[in-house]
Predict the structure.
Amino acid sequence: MRKFINIILLATLFGLNSAGQPITYKPGETIRYTINYGLISAGEATLELKTRQYGGATVWHSKLTGKTTGMVDAFFKVLDVYESYIDPATELPVFTIRNIREGRYRKYNEVAFDHRTRSDSTILTSDLTGIHIAEKGILDILSCFYHFRDNIMPLKKNSLKAGDMITINTWFTDELFPVRLKYVTTEDVKTKAGKIRCYKFNPVTETGRLFETEEDVSFWFSADNNYLPVKIRFDIFVGAFTVEMDSYKGTAFPLEIKK
C-alpha cells in the first residue's frame, strides 16, 4: 500500500536556457490535483514552487504534498510531503526532504547535494545512510520533472515519435532511481478548466504486485510552452486510479485551453 501511494504522489509531479533561467516555469506556480478511484474521491495533492532562503542564498523551494480524504482517509490516513531546494542558476537540487506518514508508518529523510567539490561527480549526504557518490548533476525526484519540462521537452517536442524513450537519472530513497518515460501520442484531455492538448507518456514501471505490464501508468503534459503535468492514470489489479488537475495558477505562460 505504501509503495503504491508513493508512486501516485511522485507521479503527480512531473531546465536552463541561454539566459541561465528556466522559461517553462517560475516561482509562484501552484497546481492542485484530486485523486480518484473510479467515482470515489481518494485524496488530493498540491505541487508548488516558491522563492526561499537556504544556506544564505536565494533558492527555489518545490513542495509536493499529498493526503487522503473522505472514506479513504478514515480507512488509511496518509500525509506525505516531498521538498526540494533548487539552485536557480543550475536547476540542480541542493537539499531535499522526504517526510512520509502513512497509517502507522513513518519515514523522514534529508539529503544534501554537493555539486561543486568534485568536478566529476556529486557528493550526497543522507541523514539516514551517510555519504554517497553519484554522477555529476544528479537530480532528485522533484527537480527531475522541472528539468524535463524546461530542458528536454522544448528540444524534443517537434521530433517525438511513438516509442521514443527519455531517461533521467535521479536520487530517490537513498539510491539511484532512473526515471524512464516512453512517448505514446498527443491527444486532448478533459479538465475542469476545459480541454487541453497534451503529450502522453508511459513511465516504465516494475511489473508484479501492482502492475501487470510496464505501461500501466500514463502521464499527460500540456502541449504548450508550460508542459504542465495535467493528468496521471494508474491501471492496477484492483482497478484504475486517476490524478487530475483541479486548479492552477502562476504558470509562466497562459495555459492553452481548447474551446
User: Anything to note?
Assistant: Helices lie at 2-12, 70-75, 141-156. The longest strand covers residues 175-191. The CA atoms of residues 6 and 130 lie 23 Å apart.
